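Q: what sequence does this backbone want?
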C-alpha cells in the first residue's frame, strides 16, 4: 500500500515539473520572438497572437501577406516554411548556414536571432510582389 502511494505521488510531481518546464520554454520562445519583432520595428506584443505573428514574420521577411494561405496546403507549406525562414535569416543579414539552422532548429535559432547581436537589415524578399497591408 505504501509503495503504491509513493509511486502515484512521484508521477504527479513529475508531471508538475514537466508542465512548469514546458511553460518556461514557451515563455522563453515568446520572449525571443518578441525581441525579433522589436528589432524589426514591430510591436513585440504581436508575437503573442497566433496567426498574426505569422503575418508579421511574413512582413519582416518581405513576403506577401497572402502566403499565410499557402500554409494550409499540404507539402506546399513545407516549401513555404523553408523559403520564409531563409528570407527571415537574410532579413537579419545572416548567411545560409544560419538559415539552415533556423529551418531545422527554430526553437534554438529564433532566440539567437532575438537575443543576439543581429540587427534587422530590411525585408530581404521585398519587391513588387510584397504589398504592405498590415
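A:
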Amino acid at each position: 500500500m505504501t509503495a503504491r502511494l509513493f509511486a502515484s505521488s512521484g508521477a504527479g510531481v513529475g508531471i508538475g515539473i514537466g508542465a512548469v518546464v514546458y511553460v518556461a520554454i514557451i515563455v522563453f520562445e515568446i520572449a525571443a520572438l518578441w525581441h525579433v519583432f522589436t528589432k524589426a520595428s514591430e510591436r513585440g506584443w504581436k508575437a503573442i497572437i497566433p496567426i498574426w505573428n505569422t503575418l508579421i514574420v511574413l512582413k519582416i521577411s518581405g513576403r506577401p501577406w497572402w502566403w499565410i494561405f499557402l500554409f494550409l496546403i499540404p507539402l506546399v507549406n513545407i516549401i513555404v516554411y523553408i523559403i520564409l525562414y531563409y528570407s527571415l535569416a537574410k532579413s537579419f543579414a545572416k548567411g545560409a548556414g544560419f538559415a539552415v539552422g533556423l529551418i531545422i532548429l527554430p526553437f534554438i535559432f529564433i532566440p539567437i536571432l532575438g537575443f543576439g547581436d543581429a540587427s534587422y537589415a530590411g525585408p530581404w524578399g521585398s519587391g513588387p510582389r510584397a504589398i504592405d497591408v498590415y
